[in-house]
Amino acid sequence: MADAVSPRRVAGPLLAVTVALVLADSAVVTLALPAILRHLDASVGQVAWVLIAFNLVLGVAAVPAAWAFTRARPRVFSAIGIAVFAGASAWCAVAGSIEVLVAARCLQALGGALALVGCLEQLVALYGERRGVATWVTGGVVGTATGPVLGGLLTETISWQAIFVVQVPFAVLAVPAALAVSAVPEVSPDRHRPAVRPNLTLALLSAALTAALFLLVLLLVEGWQRSPATAALTVSVVPLAALAARPLARLLKPPAPVEVASGCLLIAGGLAGLALPPSADLVWTLAPQALVGLGLGLTVDRLTAQAMELRLPRVRHAGWTIGARHLGVVLGLAILTPVFTDDLREAQAPAQEAIASIVLDAPLKSQDKISVAKALGRELTAEEGRVPDLHRAFVTLDVEPSERAALAELERDLDAQLERAATRAFRDSFLIGAGLSLLALATVMTPRRRTRP
Amino acid sequence: MNRQLSATALPALALALVGSVLWVQVANGGGAFEPLQPADPCVERTVTSRDEGIEGLTERLVLLGIDGAACILGVSRESLTLELAQPGPRTDEQIDALRRGLLSAVGRMKRDGTLPPASDLADEALANADLNGLLKKLILALPDSVIDAAVKTDDVLVRTINDLDLREVLADIDDQDDLNRQVNAAVTQAVKESLLQTLRDLV
Predict the structure, then answer these.
(1) Residue B19 lies in a domain
(2) Which of A73, A143, A260, B152 to pair with A41, CA 20 to 30 A apart?
């Protein structure tokens, strides 16, 4: 009896944690991107590939992994997937260049795809159909929601490499856990076609949510110069608001399409709100993020359930859902990355002009103005393509004590101009994200084709 | 909850939430949080300086001069400043606009009464001038009224601006010593010419 209970107690939670880790990895590095960008001396476009590569490989490999699973020994299949994921996570932690990190992320996603489909069937074998699927979905939701926050805290307290290091022991422990659970591969033929509409809506929403998390984090850390920990706490509004969605849906009992449509509208509204902050005060991001979180909670679970519900073989449809979500993230990054990198580049001229205007009119002695202009010029040239840290220019200046107050005020004014320029540069991308969410809403609102009797 | 209410309550709540958040953001300036727009350089502005004497006068003159030059070139003073701060060749158009801008700045300061009399600048100018020590002492002994009658600040500035090789000045913008040497030489020459002209007029 003890032998029968043991795997459920130990293996089940470890497999659920593995699911959470793999799906957390989709966005876990979001808050670490600025640190990676600086440490590996990469451009914004290159560093976006740390996210794109993982989601692209996971999205593309999910369906073939589900197909392969039905032809393999489940416990070995899962164990190999988790072991590859663990090894690739360790490789990510020691990557010395952006190219190596992207390659390691591809391998990590490949192992993750095998692990995800394997864990689904093993959790079903452990807990039964209903509870097993629910545990798998919950693990994924928890991982997706908490990933960016945990990633930010680890980056702030230790380093970006710590994000990958902490995953290794959990994944290593999950390998024997996977080997301990015997699941019978589901051999039912393809009875149902993939659920196109919920998967398409899920893909478009994932693209829109990428804007919410990826862009907001970059805006907070790079544009508004907040620490990763502050950014992590700020973006934790999204998962917290998502928790409120289920009680709200239970209270109002809307039909499923209405719930999803309302969620899409909330996400679109939240993203539009993020595009229009009145200042760089974090408080202006809270209400829009709450809308996004509420929308996320009303849509993702419901759409995943719609895509998998009563469709066989289960693992194949799970593969389609994973594919839709992660290819949606890739779609979002593919659309948004060039837009905001171009906008960031175009924002340089107005930002430099605003800085020049303030320095010219600053209440400083003319020699100090010239020293400030030279130091700023060096900093702006060195940070071509990125938002510069003007503080470095100011610490090098040697001015009379009577000038220090004016110099400190000038630094504050210039930082405010950079915040304004960065916020303006991100506006179009947030609005595109809102547009993607409205497109998702359109897929829900489009009437179904009538089927002939 | 009846069926119709359950179908409309959540969308209505979502619309209300979205509308409220966007209204609050826009009402507080959302959408207008953008970098400072450069001012029209053709519109006259008041310029001040923390410095006194020749340095303060030079700063105010340069600020007004860049405004004038930017107005002639049809660009903002900020973009012209950033362009001139970069190393590289200057176009004849830029040099000409800069000279005209500086000359019109002298005219404007004269009209405004913000040009100091020459006697206010004499001590500082003599300290920097490459003149015989005895001559310096003699000039310093002159009453202010004599200096102001003999040397007009606007005349000296106009002569200095016309004599200065602005292309060379811009090329040496990072070398403060070289810049001072060029400006001092031009100012000294302008004062000499101005004095000679005054003497000629007296004769």
Answers:
(1) no
(2) A143
For residue A339, give every residue at least 6 positions away whose Cβ sits within 8 Å of its Cβ, in sequence order, or none.
A428, A429, A432
Peptide bond into A313 cis (omega under 30): yes
CA distance A167 to A83: 11
| A358 within domain boundaries | yes
Cα(A130)–Cα(A123) distance, integer angstroms: 10
Give the gap in angstroms from C-alpha A125 to the nearest C-alpha of chain B. 37
What is the Cα–Cα distance from A23 to A80, expressed in whole angstroms?
18
| Same domain membership, residue B122 and residue B202 | yes
Domain count, chain A: 2
A359: Cβ–Cβ under 8 A, 6 or more apart, which residues? A369, A372, A373, A376, A410, A414
**Residue A190 within any structural domain of the chain:** no
Nearest CA in chain B to A248: B10
Interface check for A392 against chain B (CB to CB < 8 A): the answer is no
Q: Are residues A376 and A410 located together in one domain of the fold?
A: yes
Q: Are residues A117 and A201 in the same domain?
A: no
pLDDT in tens, chain A (453 residues): 444 455 567 888 999 999 999 988 887 888 888 788 888 988 877 888 898 999 999 999 988 888 888 777 878 888 999 999 999 999 999 999 999 999 999 999 999 999 998 898 888 888 888 888 888 888 887 887 778 888 888 988 899 999 999 999 988 898 888 888 876 666 666 667 777 888 999 999 999 988 777 788 888 988 888 888 888 889 889 888 988 998 998 898 899 889 999 999 999 999 999 999 999 999 999 999 999 999 988 998 788 878 777 666 777 788 888 899 889 999 998 888 888 888 888 888 888 888 888 888 888 887 788 888 877 877 776 665 567 778 887 887 787 888 888 888 888 888 888 889 889 989 999 999 999 999 999 998 887 665 555
Domain count within chain B: 2
To probe the interface with A, which of B50, B60, B169, B179 has the most A CB atoms within 10 Å? Answer: B50
Q: Cβ of A366 and B58 within 8 Å?
A: yes
The ipTM estimated for the assembled molecules is 0.83
Report the candidate in A75, A111, A77 with the shortest Cα–Cα distance to residue A91.
A111
Last residue of a domain, one of A185, A204, A224: A185
For residue A120, what are the domain limits?
A: 1-185
- B140: containing domain: 117-203
Same domain, A169 and A298: no
Q: Identify whether residues A251 and A122 lie together within a single domain.
A: no
